[in-house]
Write the structure tokens for this entry.
Amino acid sequence: MGLKAVVSSPSPAFSTDESGAVEVTNVGHVYETASGTTEALTDISFRVETGRFISIVGPSGCGKSSLLMMIAGLVQPTRGTITAGGRPLVQPDPTRIGVVFQDASLYPWLTARSNVEFPLSLRHVDHKIRRERAEEALDLVGLAGFADKHPHELSGGMKQRVALARGLVQDPPILLMDEPFAALDEQTRLTMGDEVLRIWERTRKTIIFVTHGLSEAIHLSDEVLVLTSRPGKLVDRVSVDLPRPRSFEVMGGRRFEELRERIWQRIRS
Amino acid sequence: MSTASHALPSPRLVRTAIVLGVLLIWEILPRAGIVPSLFLPPMTTTLQMLVVEAPIYARHMLVTLQEVGIAMIFACGGGVLCGLAIGGAASARQIMLPMFSGLFAVPLVVLYPLFTAWFGIGSESKIIFASVYGFLPTLLGTAAGVQTVDRQFLIVARSLGATRMQKLWHVYLPATLPTVLAAFRLGGALAIVGVVVAEMLTSTAGIGFLISKYRTLLDSPRVYAAVVLVLVLAIAFDGLVQVLERRLGIAQQQSGRSVGKRSVASAVA
Ligand SMILES: Nc1ncnc2c1ncn2[C@@H]1O[C@H](COP(=O)(O)OP(=O)(O)OP(=O)(O)O)[C@@H](O)[C@H]1O
Ligand SMILES: [Mg+2]
């Protein structure tokens, strides 16, 4: 589609590393239910290079979650193809793609540590290695001291940190996040945003981040994909050419307002 | 808490008092001639029988215990496994559940004579009858529990690469543990009832057999002594399940999440 031309990346360091690249080609999805069919997405194409931070915004019900689930291999697209790391994904593979969901999807019967270890124990990773890796991941998200707590003993922000650690524990090159901080209060959301940026800068993973917050999207990403609804269509790709780290001044500046305005216009159109 | 305990005696104390009261009434009513001792022999006379006739009771108790033990393995083990399997698969659930619910409504005791015809009057017929008797409610209870498992738990498991078996073992089982234990409790109690009733109907050994035999001889103290043993067996089993519940930390599990969020969820799990 013509959209691809608009896109060209402003990022100077163009990676040739395919491991974290995501390519979505002419993807559409139709849900078939007893009450009829819903066309959730139609003809979506875009490519994300390794190490980029991309946000997806759009009105409620435009298919953001569906798109993310398809990239994760949890839902098969009814049309088009998706590759991650250069290869198609027939089923979820947590070593290639980590997923963080909106609501604390932690298992309440496991401690924070066991929750993080969970994907490793599914693959029968040796107990000692499992421990080490979980410890590292918890450390990375700043929860080293809370390994033995159960989810109900943790705050909402901490729970999402654990979920993040679980997504990172197998060190996948790609991380998908579906409104991970939507249930948190403003302050915690801001802190968590910085946290994700810090982790991204350290690990240089490809991150695809779904959010309702336009400011959040601009603050975090290299590029914002804008979807519209019924059926979900990719209407714009907005490169965020603000310098990093993005201070309060930058975030209050004119360029920021212009970007925000543009995205908002596209969503409403 | 500590101030309240001044005003109210602990539940445990009240319970003990009630039990002692019942035992006391049991002793006094026949001794005072208010109730003929053929209907209700005094407590001490009954318990005395257990001591005097200890070898006989022990021998028959052993038979009963063995039958109950084996029946519980089939009823509870089989019931839980089949419940997990059936509850976990939509198609199996739709086909099988109505069938089992229907079967559950049949008073199986009326079929017991058939069991003796097929399997003889020895232990086999009791074990098989009690297994079937305890199996159905265990299965139904477990299957019902499985259906209430939060779909998000399953989506997460899939995104982390869990296989079907791993989902059953690592998600369905712990998530339904409280329900499963409740089902196990019911199934186990019914297995005990099944064995004793079967022994009472047609048999040559076991506590139920003793109850029947002494009843025809109008030997009330010995009948009551045997009944006491059945009670002890049932209470001991219940206590065992409670210990198990505490061990597994059912109390600390609190999954405070909404069930069945309709979204991409239903398509994924
Ligand atoms: N399992 C499903 N069965 C049928 N239709 C579904 C299913 N999941 C989603 N849909 C429909 O597909 C469309 C896109 O849903 P999706 O959840 O992907 O949107 P979303 O952009 O993530 O919305 P939100 O911002 O509210 O999270 C909606 O119209 C929704 O009703
Ligand atoms: Mg969504």
